[in-house]
Amino acid sequence: xxxxxxxxxxxxxxxxxxxxxxxxxxxxxxxxxxxxxFVLSLPLAIARTSHWALLRWPVQLFTYVFRGxxxxxxxxxxxxxxxxxxxxxxxxxxxxxxxxxxNCTLLAFTLNTCAYTVEIFAGAIxxxxxxxxxxxxxxxxxxxxxxxxLILPSALRRALPYYSNEVILMLHATSVAFTxxxxxxxxxxxxxxxxxxxxxxxxxxxxxxxxxLSFGLVAAFRLAERRWLSFLGPAH
Length: 236
Fold this sequence. Notes:
Blueprint: H1 2-13, H2 22-48, H3 53-68, H4 71-81, H5 86-89, H6 92-99, H7 101-126, H8 130-138, H9 143-158, H10 160-173, H11 185-196, H12 199-228
Helix pairs in contact: 1-11, 2-3, 2-7, 2-11, 3-7, 4-7, 7-9, 7-10, 10-12, 11-12
């Protein structure tokens, strides 16, 4: 165990000497995909709750497809399936994009987490009491100002407990990135196991790293909920 740690602690944590690996790579995949998925999910969540069917139905189809299929399959389609289409290879920009494993992985992760986040935020928007919206109308808020000043801030607060689950699940889902040759925590553990045959030790270290990350994220979200959801608790 000590020999394994001495040899592989750098790849497990941040680098193999040439590129980002291990914990640092997993965090990069997590933060980048969550950030892009979050930004995309806000307008899509508004469209998901729209009274206009032409806005609502395409978003509903998008979330149905990406929530109804495994992330592993989505990654394989982005990584190898789309590049196999002749029309994509004939376009220089698309060909360069889908030839890069990191681009394909981030695309799959972003679309997947975006689909779940859209449903989380849409549910939070629906849960806002209508009295709050009526009060905002009384103050002259409407249109985009209503969403910017009231609906989105209130929905994001109410969605915190559910979004925290999505973040943890997305952290665990990053472990499939090794199939696209991305050197995340699991990829380093597999390489260490192949080189040393210390299966329990190699994957045990990977498990502890994921456990530590999960614990830190849960603690951060609990603090956020205590700060921003206190208005939903009993009055003192």
